[in-house]
Amino acid sequence: MDTEAEIAEIAILGGVGFNSHRDCENIPIKTPFGRITAYLTSIKGRNIAIIPRHVEEIHIPPHRVNYRANIWAVHSLGVKRVISTNSVGSMRGHPVGSFVVLDDFIDFTCSRFSTFYDDKTVHVDVSEPYCPEIRAALRYSLEKKGIAYTEGVYACTEGPRFETRAEIRMMSQFADVVGMTGVPEVVLAKELSLCYASLATVTNQACGMTTQKLTAEEVTEVVGKAQDSIFEILSDAIGKIPETRNCMCRFAKEGACL
Ligand SMILES: [Zn+2]
After folding, report:
1. Which residues are annotated as part of the binding site?
2. CATH number, domain at 225?
3. What is the pLDDT of residues 202-252, one digit of tens each?
4. How far is the CA of 214 from the centre of ligand 1 (A)?
5. Given a cut of 90, is residue 153 above it in pLDDT?
6. Which residues are annotated as a binding site for phosphate?
7. pLDDT at residue number 154
8. Cα–Cα distance between 151 and 234 in angstroms, integer?
9. Residue 257 lies in a domain
10. In 3-state terms, what secondary structure has residue 48?
11. DSSP 249
12. Inside any domain, residue 166
């Protein structure tokens, strides 16, 4: 797919509670996978497209999000870099409200359209799933603000139910945080040779890590409170992303096609 115009340079895919697009110009985008709405704005002199992943009026559940339409849409706007926000449960005791810059993932999803390539075989490279340049920009922004953060591995579950205690015991052997929306989004971005990184907000301790019952309300409440700082972190990071891509993300599909 060739990009015809660069309407936006960077996209933000906003997770639960993301509301920083409210006053932006919205444009409907038709994709082969359905229609979505993008919101256009400018941050630090860069043209930005914001796509709220769950669509606020309906709140699309994680297993029904139209990941292919969202990634196709940002690509059709000319976007080369995607920053995603995700809420996660911690399997390492991270404080609620703290941030994790994702550096790898493990995929436990099972019912989602996870590729653009159903008619030919494309084994896209995900040895570095999250763009090192955007991750560096996110780390710069967090450090500049003196905000504590860690980097870590994301386990993506299918949902929409929360995980069991046994599942968390298993996943905590090899991942740090758990969520439901990061995959296949990151993979689809790779398939279109986009740079993609994620700023995850810890909204709760994962199941069995505390004696408290997990609720969806606490997830929304924590992200709601963190919303302003999430947007400020993203803004500073956007200002720090180099204009020209020097990472390897743009070559993700080289040698991938059979
Ligand atoms: Zn990159």
Report:
1. 53-54, 180-181, 204-206
2. 3.40.50.1580
3. 999 998 888 888 788 888 888 888 888 999 999 999 999 999 999 999 998
4. 35
5. yes
6. 53-54, 181
7. 98
8. 16
9. no
10. strand
11. G
12. yes
